[in-house]
Amino acid sequence: MAAARGLWGCEDSSLWAAILASHGEVLRARADPQGRLEALDRWYRGELPAAIEGRTERHVTRDELERLMAWKMARGRFRPRLQQLVTSNAPELVVQRSATAFRLLPDVRAAVTELCALRGVGPATASAVLAAGAPEEAAFMSDEAVAAVPGLPVLQYTLKHYMLYLSRVRERASALSRGSASGPWTPHQVETALWTWVAGQKLCPDLLPDLGPGLSTREDTRTAKKRRTQAE
Predict the structure, then answer these.
(1) Biased composition, Basic and acidic residues: where in the chain (predicted)?
(2) Which residue in 27, 37, 208, 214 has the fewest CB atoms around it within 10 Å?
(3) Measured between alpha carbons, how far is 191 from 139 in angstroms, rounded to an integer?
């Protein structure tokens, strides 16, 4: 994941913005010939946030949760059992739990815990729900983005791991916002840029901007030194 750490170490918000702008092209390189992933992604980033925001009280429906799960699996790892479990939730329970979760914000830990009471919903899926309706508070826990954040322990799909990851992503969003000429960055945008960079490096590196050499952070250097010391 050296390439991912290179992006993490980049402090130029304009380069991050360029990578974020490449998301659609990278997604097309990842997408299936039928365009299902592209359609789901447009829905997740456009229609779903608008629907959540337009309600008297923010929440998602069971149909939306099912579609969100389909988006999550199309973008990452296919786990049909989770789709079945999500479908087994009563529609009114999904509305109730998700509404409570959004009311609990900005306490993301409590909001994720509330959503995880639904069948088939773990911290990663819960984070996708919150990122859609509160992008300034939460970031989706994608495998690619988590792997791109240096210094985290081995990935575990737990609330503890998510909160460690979110803390780092929020810090990066704040740092990018300070140097941004195009407005503040949200944790949701940071995750999307990280996913785009990692997926793009594998699928279509020519579409991504060249970050140039020597972009590892001082933190990466300290981590490497610590590992060498432990090995010795």
Answers:
(1) 217-232
(2) 214
(3) 6
